[in-house]
Every structure is written in C-alpha cells, then in structure tokens.
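Protein entry
_____________
===
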Amino acid sequence: MDYELPEELRMLQETVRRFVDRELIPIERETMEGPKLKPEAQEMLEEKAKAVGLWLYDVPEEYGGQGLGLLARAVVWAELARTIALPSRNVNIFGPIVSPILYFLNDEQKQRYLYPVLEGKLRHCFAQTEPDAGGDPGNMRTTAVRDGDDYIINGTKRFITGAADADFAQVIAATDREKGSRGGISAFLVDMDTPGVNLLRAQETMMHDRPWEIAFEDVRVPSENMIGGEGDGFKFAQNWISAGRIRHGARGIGVIERCLELGASYAKQRSTFGSPLAERQSVQWMLVDSYADLHMLKLMVYAAASKHDDGGDIRYDSYIVKYFGDTKSFEAADKCMQIHGGLGLTTDLPIEHMWRDQRSFIITEGPTEILKMALSRHVLRQYGD
C-alpha cells in the first residue's frame, strides 16, 4: 500500500494551498455577512477560482466539470478547511452546488432540474432531517401518500440549510412507514413554490449557519417527480451522505493543520515566567497529540476515498472517518484555543470560529453515538464468532 498521494494529487494540493494562503486567509475575517459570502467577495473569489483551474472540480466530466474522484476532492476539501473565509457548509465559489443525487435523475428530470442547476439558474436544498428523526431517518414521520397520479406530502423538516434560497427541494419521505429504512422511504423533487410548502422559521445557531424549518401541508407532487422508484429514497440519501462523511474527515485534516500552524507559531512567540510556551511540556504534548491525530486522520481519509474510487463499499469506513475526524479536529481547535489563552477567545483569530464549527459537526450528518452504535454491530459480526 502506498501511503503517499500520487504526484498529480500532490500538485493539486499545492495549487489549492497556494490559493488558500494567498487569496483566502488574508481576507478571512472580511468575506462573510452572516451565513453567506458578501456578494462582492463571491464574485471576486469565483473569478480567482476559475483562474487557478478549480471551477466545477466536483462535477462529472459528462456534465462539463472536471470529474475529480473522491480522493482528489478530499485533498481540495482539506486545504479549503484551513481557512474560515468560506461558509463551512455549501461552499459555492467553485461553481453551482450540485447534490450528487441529481445525477441519478432520469432524462426528463435532468432537463427540468439538473441542467438548470449546473447553469446557475436554479438552486436546491436537501430536506431529510425532522424534529423526531434526525440521526434516525428510518423513523421519519413525513409521509408521501399516493393519490392517483400524484403523491400528497405531509410533515415537517428541520435544520434544512439553504431552504430560503432554494427553488426546489429533494424531499425524503416515508411511502411505507412499516418498512422504514428497508424500502419504505422515497425521494421527491418538490418545487418550493408548490402550494402547501411553508418556510416556518430560520434557526439561529452557534455556527455561521442559518438552517430552516419547513412545513409540508397536503403538498401535491406529480409521481414523475419521484427520484428512482418507490422505496429508493434511503439508498440515494445514504450514498450521498457516505461521501459527505469523508468530507467531514477531510475538513478535519485542514482544521488540525491550521491549528498546528497557529499553535506552534504562537508557542514560539509567547513567553511566560521567562520562557517561551514552546518549552512547556504541557504545550508540547498538546501539539504532539494533535499532530498524531492528523497523521491517523490522513491515513483514514486517503484509504476510504481510494477505496470509494476503486468501487468499494465505504459505509463503515465513512462512519469511522466522520466520528474520528470531527472529534479530533474539535479537540485540536480546543487545544489551540487553550494555548492562545485569552487571545484564543477573541474574533481576532479564526480559532473560535473553527472551535464552534467543529463542535457542531460532531452532531450534524450523523451524531458520533449513532455512528458508533452502527459500527458496534459491524464489529460484533466480524469478530464475534
């Protein structure tokens, strides 16, 4: 097994790192307005992304993009995570955000939804999480009941990022609640201006994110708006989320690296009681712990992403990557904050921002406890004989 990135990916890594160091970090406290990029920053950074060859890096070649594999995308995600200049969710300076689920649409659906998204004419959101079914989607209460040529959707979705700006939603709903996640969940394309779709409220969070709660009240959706067949919804959602969990791990790599850069640099500069912090064993050990976590996380992410690119099943790999990556990157931000003392609590540095974001990721897209519960079943099957 080769633990080094291939040469072309090392070149990609260097390109993105230069972009982050030169274009993003110097302005990282100035680009955001609430949860979104300022319009002038958006326009400027899009042009710079095109200039360095990063435009549509994650879009398949058949749709006009660069078609980078998961390992290459993980390299990009890791480098971008070294800065807080961009939204931690829904980064869109590299082209329109395209949900991977949209690539599974049939030809007629692609004409109505996928191609307009790629052209920047439509925006979308992903609506799965509910008040009573966050980490347990098989228990969702939003239902889609067949009525002639339509489905009638009723229910409430919560923590839906980008809902206010979306033209349509990919709604995951139960078509057979008894089957649950084993064939009872389906996916639908729902236009946000459909009667009965109501944005209830934006939820203020500790992160720079403002997700929405949406109510669906007798929303009539044509059956041709179903993605795949009845009962395919859970499969589509989980396939996307598995790759998304690798993104969590890749983001963790970037956060830990930036925290090591900040922590080691400050430890050399700051003196207490006549000696630099860098000579304090307590500080040295914090840096070493984060460095060891970084090394392990890189191996996990690279191995899982490579396995995915080779056609392998990475479901359990993605569980490990997410819970380890989110937890250890939060710990790295916490150690970096401690090393900086009071300065680490200020908004002069990106530490507090990373600290809040990484704490939130331990909960979102799969809480650590649920991932470990699923992994425990896998471990007992593999080693319990």
Observations:
- The chain has a mean pLDDT of 94.
